[in-house]
Amino acid sequence: MRRRATSYAVLAAALYAVNIPFSKRLLLHVSPTMMAALLYLGAGLGLLAGRLAGRGLDRRATSLTRKELPYTAAMVALDIAAPILLMLGVERTTSANVSLLSSFEIVATSLIALVLFREVLSRRLWLAIGLVTAASALLGWEGSSGFVFNRGSALVLGACLCWGFENNCTKMLSSKSSQEIVIIKGCFSGLGSLLVALAAGESLPAPGWALLTALLGFVSYGLSIYFYILAQRDLGAAKTSAYYSIAPFLGVALSMLLGERPGPRFYAALAVMAAGTVLMVRDTVALQHTHAHAHVHTHAHVHTHAHQHGGLVHTHQHSHVHSHLHVHGPDEERHLHTHQDLPDHGHSHAS
Description:
This protein is of the alpha+beta class. The protein is 65% helix and 15% strand. Strand 2 and strand 3 form a beta hairpin. Helix 4 runs antiparallel to helix 8 and helix 7 packs antiparallel against helix 12.
């Protein structure tokens, strides 16, 4: 079961990795904002069709309510901005650069969690953040006499920043149906991007190119998330995300297979990015082991009761033992409380 779950996690990473290299080629026939819209609509409508066909992944999960509406609205808005910025970046730089820069999303997510939600970052994660940031700067540098940042790389980093905020919003919905969340993301964010594209004067592509783009979205977003959730059931969130971190490097490999030949600076950034990613994975796995423990708290209360019958006073001593079992795992926290009443450990009589 764990081997199958591992294969699902790797498959999820591989399916997402095809997004950038093939989007780069489709951009020759589809405008960037329209591309973002069709990718998300393909994912959302594809999973919606699967849900209507009874192919639900998490039927036991609860649906979204009005309480989650602010986070849901923010998630949709950010998912409109992020893919548009990404496609604009893909249009202006190589797909290998974009694939590698997508690792910056983890940095953005971690720093936003630190600032907004006061999450604690380990020393290892701080070092990983520094390495990934340095590699991102190296990829974006134009190499001229002054420090000029490549416009395409800046747009990709902007997309990663949006997804960093979006990840923290989605985390607030983690107890809800993952499939429902993806359908809402795909359909509403895709529709929003479509309206932006039409308002900007972009036209719909030829039906064949539109269908290919939506199919790419269904595969690289919809099916990728589908297998990610399946893997998470048996591996847990930490290990699944560790396996999924290979996606940028698979994207780089596919870009090279399709004919891209990056320069020496890219390979230097690749080495630094790989070191940062390894540190992030090790930090994630270490955090999982740290929280996977159980501990028991036991405490007793001893007290007396005094009863008066006529001129006779009885005092009864009682002992109450309470035990609390806390189990902290990577994906759950369980509490078990037991209470034991041990009466009449002592009697005294007074008149």
